[in-house]
Structure formats: structure tokens, C-alpha cells
Amino acid sequence: MKIFNAHKVGKFSDENPDDEFSEIAEDGYVRTRVISDDYCSISVASFRDGQIKEKPHRHPNAAEVYYVLEGKGIATDANGNMKSVGPGEIIYFDAGEFHNIHAAPGHDCKYYRVQAGKDRHVED
Prior knowledge:
mainly beta; single chain; 9 strands; Jelly Rolls; 1 helix
């Protein structure tokens, strides 16, 4: 059994995310990996206002689920439809579905993320 507090695990880039499982993505947001095994990956993604993944991407063999922990975000689907999301909302992307997710303009956002599938590589 593993227990963690997603609110405390996820840190923004200016909060000195020094956990050995934290990394600052090239887009500036922080990914903090909580669990990673052969079948799933669980992490917290923390976006400050303006930290946007520019290109939609997909995981051909892994579904992805986001749960908004705090703040306000934008979820974009394969057709470019953008939806505003907030705390308590769950966003699901099928394996292979192009998507993008980030903080809404003027807001920060923290997501709990689960990638389910053995091959979770990213394709643009």
C-alpha cells in the first residue's frame, strides 16, 4: 500500500520542486511522479499561469485521466475544442486521442494524472 497527499506532492516551478521524482518540463510546468510501474503512471502536474504545452500530443497505447486538484485549467481535445475545468473535475482521454492540458490564462492549475497502459510514450 502507498499513501500520498496529491496537494502536497505537486509543487510549482517557483516552489523549489526538489523531490527526486520531480522534473521541470521544457514548457516550464512541474511533473512529480508518484508511482510508475509496467501498467500505469501516477503524477501531479503543476502549471503556473502562462505555462502551456504548445502542441497537442497523444499516447498511442495509454489512456490518460486528469483530476483537477486546484486552480483553473484548459483541456483541449483532438478537434481543438477547449473546455474550462476546475477543482473536482475529471478529464479522460482515450488511448491515441490527441489532447493538451494547461493552466487557464490568469490562473494556476494543479492536476492529478493517471496514465493507464504499458506503453505510455508521447507522440506529437
